[in-house]
Amino acid sequence: MRKYVVIPDSFKGCLSSGEICGIIAREIRCRDPEARVYTLPVADGGEGTVDAFLGALGGEKIAVPCRDPYGRPLTAHYGLFPDGKTAVIEMAAAAGLPLVGEDRRVADATTYGVGQLIAHAFKRGAERIILGLGGSATNDGGCGAAAALGVEFLDAEGKAFVPVGGTLRRIAHIRTDGLLPALRQAEVIAMCDIDNPLCGESGAAAVFAPQKGADAATVRMLDEGLAHLAAVIEKDLGRSLLTLPGGGAAGGFGAGSVAFLGARLQMGIEAVLDLTDFDRLAADAYLVITGEGRLDSQSLRGKVVVGVARRARALGVPVVALVGSSETDIAAAYDAGVTAVFPINPAPTTLSEALAHARTHLAFTAENVLRFARCLEENR
To answer: Which InterPro entries match (predicted)?
Structure first.
């Protein structure tokens, strides 16, 4: 009996990871009815992360009243795994860009609601937090979330306030005496798929704030604010974060999660592979099938396809990547362990047509990959 492990990223703007798993699993069962098929939906830490983990591991989605990026009332959700000890939280649920629509005022936006979600998870008994850093509307360095969890930010007059991106330079001191006790004992893993530092020309403000509504002057102000925050963190908490890879993720929440939550930054796919026990599951697999919307140079920096391939290569298991499109210079993917890459579009087409027919094209390509794999096996 053959075992297949299906572990794709989403085709963004088109098919979710869960939908892709369903299409490929159906084709496998049509071609190989006795097969064991394990589907592991993947998300990168942004919107859809909770659903992907719950789809792979089970558990429940929990609703929490909290604040949105501008402090307005919001009901957001997080996931609690069946053991009741691990919670998965996507910061986008309470601080995501879609929540603000076209009213993008990054200097005013807060991650406070994310802290409320984390606090609620601890009240439910969580001992480990998986925090997805993606899709944020914020640039507050995670100060809002920290404030919701008991960290105090004081101005020069000793008055406590909740900093946002535009007021980071007001911070004179940081006190952690009131930090939620459960957080001190917890394991926090922050899923982070970028390596941008906190500040500078490749930092949080310069690279990501413009898409959150910042003009050039605001970018400079936000960058200076994050640099000031880093200086106060080093002075009061003894953590040097300016050069931390991934510190610039989610408006500086990458650095903030390390400083305030004691988090460990980890590539999203590595967190998924560890939590789903991929190495054990795939050890005797006939084939691993992965994929993403586009395989390009960004993918080769540790995204889903390459992350899966590296683990599978160590197990001696072949990996096929089904992708919406691909660059032709992907030798690094093969070097990482990808056996073959198959773009799913069968003919030249426009983007809108490719998106409209993605389900059919994915099923067609999966069927042909499976036919070919079986033919090779039967003719050995």
So the answer is: Glyc_kinase_flavodox-like_fold, Glycerate_kinase, Glycerate_kinase_RE-like, Glycerate_kinase_sf
